[in-house]
Amino acid sequence: MSARGASNAPRGSQLPAQEKVSNELFTLTYGAMVRQLLHDFETVEEVNAELDAMGARIGSRLVDDFLANAQGVRCADFKSAADSVARVGFRSLLGVTARVGAWSETSDAGSGPSACSIYFEENPITDFVELPRGLEELSYCNVLCGVIRGALEQIGMHVTVVVVKDMLKGADGNELRLTLKEHAAETYPFKDDD
Amino acid sequence: MTDTTTTSTTTVAAAAAGGGAAPPPPPPPPATSSPVQVAEICLDLLLAETERHFMHRDVQNANTSSSDDAKHLQAIGYRVGYALVERCSRGKPRPTDKLDAVKFVCKDFWSAAFGKNVDHLRTNHRGVFVLQDTSFRNLRHVPQHANNDVANERLQIPTGMLQGALAALGVPPTSVEVECNSPPDVTFTVKIGVAP
Question: Where are the coiled-coil regions (chain A) (predicted)?
Fold first, then answer.
């Protein structure tokens, strides 16, 4: 039983082993894509915005797969969702460890914190990457912000994500700041007769 | 406890000394197997998003034709292929002729880029090589009877990768054509040093 390949395992019975690819291929593909964007757009700001937008579209598709595969992940409120992104998402999708911290003060009773930071040192998209002179404004990791924003949007949480610290720019670690703008609660039960 | 530690340290030291005295020092850990691996879906979605961006932008802009868009995707693939070959050929003898280079692409490069080896390689020994992969990874989500354009779009980056890989091995192809009649079965026809 245990020797059975992951591909034969019935879907959903347990946490299936994710198919993996080498990080090199992924990094090189992302890098080549960013270079092409830099070539196409006139300003670095436009590239940053496009990376974020592309990330959001990736995130909105990624979240389905993520929730289907990672059972037992809780995303009921902002705190648990941010926690899942950092501890489960980064590990299972990007193969690196990340942690959450710097929770904002709880604004009023019951609503929980509305901002936090995700910290990580190893960043699989920046292997072999060095920002050349003249591109200091490029936010190479903006795609990650987009992915998190797009993914959380699918589960009703509108967040802004910004890069606070970037190791490509000489920081001692990477930090993404998540701020919850609005949590649209799902309404149950849905009316069938509409 | 302490004893075992000391003995093991000495053995390691002796082994290291022995290795240093004889031929070259032991090679560093293989660079091709990167410790970090990402989920395949991340790469899939990145590729899909890249294709979407470069194929479907500026529909209203008449002066970008679809062949221009394909060129952009191929340019991306070219860089990936070029860099990937440099990484996976490290420490291996450089191919001496065209056939050698193509064989390297079919095995080492293909498995680094597409997760398996090429299934069939045919050549006329005059610079035309036909590479067939019957279950090409980048097409595994394309339905078998999909519109040809869908598969075609997904094959632009791999085409560029193949060009870049061969260029990095010193045999830049004069043309690479791709044909796909029933995904995920795909055939690349590579011409090296012959008129396209």
Answer: none
